[in-house]
Design a protein that fits this description.
Blueprint lengths: L4 E5 L5 E3 L2 H11 L2 E6 L6 E5 H12 L6 H11 L3 E4 L5 E3 L2 H6 L5 E6 L4 E5 H17 L4 H4 L4
Antiparallel strand pairs: 1-7, 2-6, 3-4, 3-5, 4-8, 7-8
Length: 150
């Protein structure tokens, strides 16, 4: 499971270095083979270990192809998917088109989401958190969440 929020820098070639605490796990899970794609609803990127990505891709591919929501999801998520591999220095190259989509320039946030990571432009991440805080105050808390004990 990938956890934690990491502040990272993008180098001149568009690469990020995976935090040390995740390197061995990524190597063990997927032999450093990963998939990078855009988030279909947010201006961020998704980084998955190859095996977890394949499971997700199969689920998406099994959805009814004539449904407009399925088409949108396939075109965004699968259509922008890029195979990537950690290099010997544990870096991942973020292609220019994906960096443009997520407005990624120099500083990014890498947020562990369990089976994958989200990659955000640092300013966008901060605005997104503020926005979620605002929106959550306007809506009732779902019963599933109120039953959690932290």
């Amino acid at each position: 499971m990938f956890r934690g929020v990491h502040s990272l820098s993008v180098d001149a070639k568009g690469r990020i270095k995976i935090p040390t605490r995740h390197q061995a796990q990524i190597d063990k899970i997927c032999k450093s083979k990963m998939v990078l794609s855009i988030h279909p609803d947010d201006n961020c990127l998704l980084l998955y270990p190859l095996e977890d990505w394949q499971i997700l891709e199969e689920k998406v591919s099994a959805l009814p192809s004539l449904n407009i929501h399925t088409k949108r999801l396939k075109r965004k998520l699968i259509g922008h998917a890029t195979d990537c591999e950690l290099d010997k220095a544990s870096r991942v190259l973020i292609p220019a088109t994906l960096r443009e989509y997520a407005n990624i320039d120099k500083k990014i946030i890498m947020s562990g989401q369990g089976h994958n990571f989200e990659l955000w432009d640092e300013d966008t991440w901060n605005k997104q958190l503020d926005n979620l805080d605002s929106l959550s105050k306007e809506q009732d808390i779902p019963p599933e969440i109120t039953q959690l004990s932290l």
